[in-house]
Amino acid sequence: MIEQGQTTAIELSVNGHRHRLRLEARRSLLDALRIDLGLTGTKQVCNMGNCGSCTVLIDDQPVYSCLTLAIECVDKQIRTIEGLNENGTLHPLQQAFIEHDALQCGFCTPGQVMAACGLLARNPHPSEAEVVEGMSGNLCRCGAYRGIVQAVLAVSAEG
Amino acid sequence: MKNFTHIDAQSIEHTIPLLDYYARPLAGGTDLIPLMREGVWQPDRLVNLKPLADLHFLREAGDGLHIGALTTLDELDRSPLVRERYQALAEAAHSAASPQLRNMATLGGNLLQQVRCWYYRGPFNCWMKGGDHCPARSGENEHHAVFDQSPCVAVYPSDPPAALITLDASIRIVGPDGARSVKVADFLAPPDELHRVMHGLGLNELITEIVVPHTTARSLYLKAMDRAVWAYALVSVAVAGEVANGTITNPRIVLGAVANVPVRLGAVEALIDGQLLTDELIKEAGTMATHGMEPLAHNHYKLPLARNLVRQALRDLTGQRM
Amino acid sequence: MPKLIKSEINVEGRITEEYAVVDGDELAAWGENEELAIVGQPAPRIDGAAKTTGEARFSYDVQLPGMLYAKVLRSPHPNARVLRVDASRAEQLPGVVVVLTHETAPDIKVREGKLPLLPEDARFAGELVAAVAATDPDIAADALALIEVEYETLPFITDFTLALEGSAPKVRPNGNVVSQPSVTERGDLKAGLAVADVRVELTVRTPTAVHNALETHGCVAAWEGDQLTMYESSQHVYGVRTFAAKKLGLPVSKVRAIGTYMGGGFGAKFPGQPYSMVAATLAKRSRRPVHLMYDREGENLESGYRGASVQHVKLGAKRDGSLTAIELDGLTECGSYANWVVSLGGPYAMMYTCPNVKLTTTGVHTNIGPFQAFRAPGFVEGMVGLEQGMDLLAEKLGMDPLELRRRNLAKLDQSEDKPFSSFPVEECYRRGAEAIGWNKRKPTNDQSRSSERLRRGTGMASQIWWGGGGPPAYAEVQLNGDGTATVLTGAQDLGTGARTIFAQVAAEELGLELGSVGVTIGDTYAGPFGPASGGSVTTGSMTPAVRSAANDLRVQLCSIVAQLEDVPEEELEVRGGTVYRRDTPVSSVKSIMRKLGDVMLIGKGSRGPNPSDVSVVTSGAQFAEVEVDTVTGRVRVIKIVAAHDSGRIVNPQTFTSQIQGGIIQGLGLALTEQRVIDHRAGQILNPNLEWYKLPTVADIPEIVNLLIDIPDTKANSLGSKGAGEPGIIPTAAAIANAVANALGVRIFELPITPARVLEALETIA
Ligand SMILES: Cc1cc2nc3c(=O)[nH]c(=O)nc-3n(C[C@H](O)[C@H](O)[C@H](O)COP(=O)(O)OP(=O)(O)OC[C@H]3O[C@@H](n4cnc5c(N)ncnc54)[C@H](O)[C@@H]3O)c2cc1C
Ligand code: SF4
Ligand code: FES
Ligand code: FES
Predict the structure, then answer these.
(1) Which ipTM was obtained for this model?
(2) Whether residue B176 is found in the same domain as residue B312
(3) Centroid of chain to Cα C314
(4) Is C583 on the interface with B (CB under 8 A)?
């Protein structure tokens, strides 16, 4: 239990690393990642579940970190964009996004890549319709959608 | 978002006494968190239900399908069992929100989703929020009700419940006085002066499970949206019935997004029950579906839309794809 | 020798004349058949890895030691006077460092230098009233709730179609008309209408469309002594510097503006908006860096939009289709502050030959936040009116709509009586029509009787826009000790791929491999002046400057090699990273530079003047195929074929992305996007991404982007023009025409929602 207005110390496992942090109950996972842990790859755009830019994986499932309370993520495996190329080489999805020009300004991109990652984890060889469906929780205002679909399909074809 | 106390639920029994107006249960959080961010609700305490494994299951028993309240919309959408036997429910769950939201959103929470009316969610102290009038009634009401059921003209926003009503589902509720069971169709009710929500859950009650009786009926869910995905229904329809040689029996038809609650079309059901679904009959059914609708200034389109969707649903149900 | 000239600066259609210093001896343009190794080839974005890994640091991501988070309090009333602000409780909240109200704000005038930073008169719901900087964003938000404000509410008007009525409250002291209506007139309209054999009249409405770039407006301001650094999400990094220096009375040398990555602008992120001065002030007072980024609601309330329009249009033509008259009487919504009005008349004036034209656009003030340029402002809306009129005219004449356009296509720039430098619209029509299968298009009149559930239709629309760019624009290219080169300029990349094409141009001109050219942009301390990125000018303005700098560097390199290796300089040439004497390799650039140790060669370049005898425009056409579901009323776009002239295409891959992006925003305007306002309350009902509906991945059609790729050798030394606006200009018009073709009934108001389709179908049932 965390009392109103109090902070509590918790441990979060992000990209396989354990982090200790103190926070209030109202802290979203998104803010905890960005503000408390300095992992700014994950973006906030709407803070209301309307855009997908804050997508991270929790236990391999893509979710919106803006609607997730950080304290409810203790004992869960959180994966963010920073965790995809930890060994220094780009993840195939990152490579494919670049090759298919699946980005313009790049602000939605981390969320898109994580959504794609979640999609492929569950369905390694999606059809085009399944890719569209799986990526439909991520808005891109620049309109990089065609490239995004192609990039995800390309990775699914490789794998 | 205002600060709050966060408590992890230990058991249903432990949770019930904690609940009141200021202490709300939290499931997926996809509605509660936005409501709190918007300042519409400001509870002091949240009781996190997610640790309650006994609310998280999906299984078939002798009397039908049992769905734990914490079952996510995604789990419903992907369950082969639901997809095969309770198609309308799978389709309704699938049509809701976005993949990420479906991973988070629970069926229990979905039943209790607050109206998405943009006045309610915006800086208006409207009737539903305790004020004394409804600005939508004479305002921007293109997404509002065509049946006048209460001082509020918001539509019930969730998709799966219309399917649940078509499938004659019930809800199990646990409160301080024990458990009770209520049909979804009765659970959802238009708000009134003293009770400004669209459901009948007490402040110290929990939904524990949803039970869908066995059925041999075919069912489906159609949802019209103003973009391809990730939008609330403009109008939706859930239908179920037994179909043999073009004849339908025991039809159940429920319209969504036309009123404070999903609306069951009893007269249309009576019209077609036991009948051969000819093109004329289907047309008549569609026309009859709009009886009693009183559109507001900006939602006349819901009449042809409801009419068309009912017709289309009956055609699809009987395999007369067009 | 540098040359001083007067240059026309065109930012999103706002034209001003300013001085520019340009290269006296500009490079000759690369010819149509120039053999280029890198320019013209698809190349993946050089910042792709930074953006896909989350390492690209946007303003929003900047975190500095001791940084505070700021939040702003906004007026809840559409028109109100702030009588009293009591921030004492907020100030006492632990963690709150500074609170700014109109009483404590510095004397900085904003909104074209006329209004206080935190005005006492809030002219729209969402206007800034106070700001708080605190150690945590949650604390800042808590503090806002503790600020008590007493308002005197005043009458307001938010409906621009009613704001010109005599009884409407005045938004600004001078009334609700923004400056003078813009009027374009040539010939004699009345006579033109009189001689017409056929006339059509229509009224078209377009909605308020919000940019909703995913990164909101905002900045991080940090002082070190008397030096200010502004990390701002901006379309003009150098403009951020100029604005801050001017408002704060600092020498420009003391202001560093940084915008390395920015999450979308689309016209709304030009400098000069109040928040940057709020952030700078909070940072100054707290002596700590301050992060002030708007939330989505603030973005929607304050940060701009494409104003809604109403266009009354009359067209007249002879039997053979030749236009005799075009009349436009248009209104456009401008909100509470505006010092210019978009030109709805642009396309009507420029696209087709017509001797008698009268085009009026009246900008209207309302108690809504100010509009901002939005990707081809005025032209997108104008095309929706013009091109639907052209289709109606074609129907009346019994002529194919494409043929009607062919017959009328402009032969010169009629406003300046100058030929176009290049205007290959015929070619765009021909290739586009072929790709969409135009000859299979069914006549519109047949369709209303169809009983099919899914009805298909095809439509098209033309495009015209400027986009040639111009001076001033500067770049430097450095050759480093390891043989790699760095392009330096203060220009910015909004996601267009500017960084990448700068590298391509520099590599091409220098004779280096693309991989050995780096680009440092978006920092006024790192590179020379780059122009605002708006109006599709970045390519046309900047690439010639980069090329010129690279050329300067190459000349220096050859001279150095000549001295080093004792070879005649005139015989040297650099290709693929190697210096050749005629066809014999002399040495690689790398080993030459290694030999020279810490030597750095620095090339400088600037954009040359624009030609004075021709008018530089981009042009083209789009074709749309749609399918309308008569059960649900939803329009699905199946295919868009785009054919646009942007001169030489530097990078087909990023060019195609730009065009697709424009199309998708145009599709949103056509089908799903619209701001909804309750005019009784003066409140925007959908300042969010829930009810302001952007297209999703599932709404996207097949997009065929035909590469026209004709270098515009008269335009500049690259022969390239922009692609930011062209893609969006014809899309909504083409879709509207396709829907009309599918249904046999026309919907004159955008967006074409299911509600409107169903209502239209009811009228013909
Ligand atoms: C952007 C967006 C789009 C959406 N689109 C759709 C859509 O198209 N169709 C659709 O149907 N829905 C849609 N939703 C709504 C979403 O489906 C619901 O928010 C979700 O189902 C609620 O479940 P939850 O577990 O997240 O509930 P929570 O947010 O956790 O709770 C919702 C309410 O239910 C209460 N509650 C939760 N569980 C229980 C329980 N077991 N017993 C008692 N009370 C409980 C909470 O106290 C709260 O009042 C959308 C939501 C968002 C944010
Ligand atoms: S429809 Fe209901 S929720 Fe909406 S404004 Fe009216 S009372 Fe409030
Ligand atoms: S920021 Fe989480 S969905 Fe938009
Ligand atoms: S790349 Fe800019 S929002 Fe997607």
Answers:
(1) 0.98
(2) no
(3) 29
(4) no
